[in-house]
Amino acid sequence: ILLSLSVPAGRKGFGYLEQLVELYRQDPSRSLTKELYPEVGLANKTNGAGMERAVRGVIQTAWDQRNEALWRMYFTPSRSGMMPRPTNLAFIATLAEVLGREEERQA
Length: 107
Fold this sequence. Notes:
This protein is mostly helical. About 65% of the residues lie in helices and about 0% in strands.
């Protein structure tokens, strides 16, 4: 899914994003900034702020290079029909939800 959304695989933020989505899937009630960023940062020997910056960067790159029709499959446009760039949390939560639905469908 990440690759289809144009998330660049060669950047650090890609790996962080994979880990964040998996942790979020396990427990969506956990705080992204207070718990998940620091946990993934510690596991990758970096701090939460640097990790958040890397994740934001890959999401921005994916957004800039997006296939509009594909993104609309995953992210809901606003009432005006415009689709704002999703926040890190919205991006992670959406991916976690999509992966959960796919797992249920395959089970």
